[in-house]
Design a protein that fits this description.
This protein is mainly α. It folds into two domains: 287 residues, no CATH class; 61 residues, no CATH class. The protein is 76% helix and 0% strand. It is built from 18 helices and no strands. The longest helix is centred in the N-terminal third of the chain and has 30 residues. The chain starts with a helix and ends in a 16-residue tail after the last helix.
């Protein structure tokens, strides 16, 4: 096995995740231009036009058509579809009701819950610096709750739905991001069609009432939704959930800047103190992620065997580097009790588990 492939895939995963998170941070600009459209109809447009775009892509590629799957694949798409629908409608409501700062707070809270889920369900670990960073983030969000006079509803709902979505992406890794996202839109299509039919029967369908420019903007909900969602689905199986928790501060930071500079929302001194703690945590977490410590080989059994095999394939320093890469990749992707049953369910469809073909000795 080429030892550079896992590292390249991991780097591509982080790049895709960063683009998706920046994209989502800018989405309130889009909803602000369509604030006259009701949130249920806006959600229906996101689902319907995403389905259209993804169906066109799949029809043009025979390889994707062969991966559409049977009823088990659509059953696995049910939970992510529900979480996506809830997350979308809450985000739309926050964007069009002047609560972009609260949406920003929700995504600042999200890394804390994502890291907790990674520790509890995936046996992931935090080093001291990252634990301190998340503690600062927690302190900042507590200050934010005090500033808002209680628990912000939009922030909490966004946090819960998006963190659980990240967990499902990690436990049920996608074989192909385009096909898996298409399955989720198929599951959501009955709601979208029902919403359109209900609004049309009451002559309240904005798509038929507004001018052509507004209709085109509604149709753009498809590509604007599909691109970052596909990038996120592609990235999550390749990156650590705790690492992605740190990167997810990008989305609320972008939204925070938009709320102040474009939407002119009010920021109090207490709000600023809370965000200051969160940003300090982000800086510390970034430093912890960038800094590389010397690798200590502690993986036993098959992990050690893989490291030895990698070391024997080359000589000197280059061989040690390849062995270290193999150990790091295997340790980061070891099977966990939470995902073992899902892996068996995935294999029952007769398809290989994605991004784990190099781990046969770890089974």
């Amino acid at each position: 096995m080429n030892a550079s492939n896992p590292k390249q895939k991991e780097g591509a995963g982080y790049t895709a995740l960063l683009v998706a998170l920046c994209w989502w941070g800018l989405m309130p600009l889009y909803y602000w231009h369509l604030k006259e459209v009701s949130p249920p109809e806006m959600l229906a447009h996101r689902v319907f036009w995403s389905f259209v775009v993804l169906s066109a892509v799949i029809m043009l590629k025979p390889a994707l058509r062969r991966q559409m799957g049977g009823w088990r694949a659509f059953a696995l798409a049910l939970l992510p579809a529900i979480l996506l629908s809830a997350n979308w409608v809450v985000y739309i409501l926050a964007s069009v009701t002047g609560n972009a700062l609260q949406a920003s707070l929700g995504y600042f809270l999200n890394p804390l819950l994502s890291a907790a889920l990674g520790i509890v369900f995936l046996n992931e670990r935090l080093n001291g610096l990252k634990a301190a960073a998340l503690a600062l983030g927690l302190a900042g969000t507590i200050v934010q709750c005090v500033a808002h006079g209680g628990l912000p509803v939009f922030a909490v709902m966004l946090t819960v739905t998006f963190s659980l979505l990240g967990l499902t992406r990690k436990v049920w890794p996608t074989r192909n991001a385009i096909v898996s996202t298409w399955r989720e839109t198929v599951v959501m299509m009955p709601f979208a069609l029902g919403c359109f039919g209900n609004l049309a029967s009451h002559h309240a369908l904005a798509f038929a009432s507004y001018d052509a420019d507004a209709s085109v903007l509604m149709m753009l909900a498809g590509p604007l939704t599909v691109v970052p969602l596909a990038l996120y689905a592609y990235a999550m199986p390749l990156v650590s959930l705790t690492e992605s928790a740190v990167m997810q501060y990008v989305t609320p930071t972008v939204t925070f800047i938009l709320a102040l500079t474009v939407f002119h929302e009010r920021l109090t001194a207490v709000d600023l103190a809370g965000y200051g703690l969160i940003w300090c945590g982000l800086a510390l977490a970034t430093y912890a992620s960038v800094r590389r410590r010397p690798l200590t080989i502690t993986v036993a059994g098959s992990g050690a065997t893989a490291a030895t095999a990698g070391a024997q394939s080359v000589q000197g320093v280059q061989g040690a580097s390849v062995a270290a890469s193999n150990v790091s990749f295997l340790a980061a992707h070891k099977k966990t009790p939470a995902s073992a049953g899902v892996n068996r369910f995935w294999h029952s469809e007769g398809r290989p588990e994605p991004e784990r073909r190099c781990e046969k000795s770890d089974a």
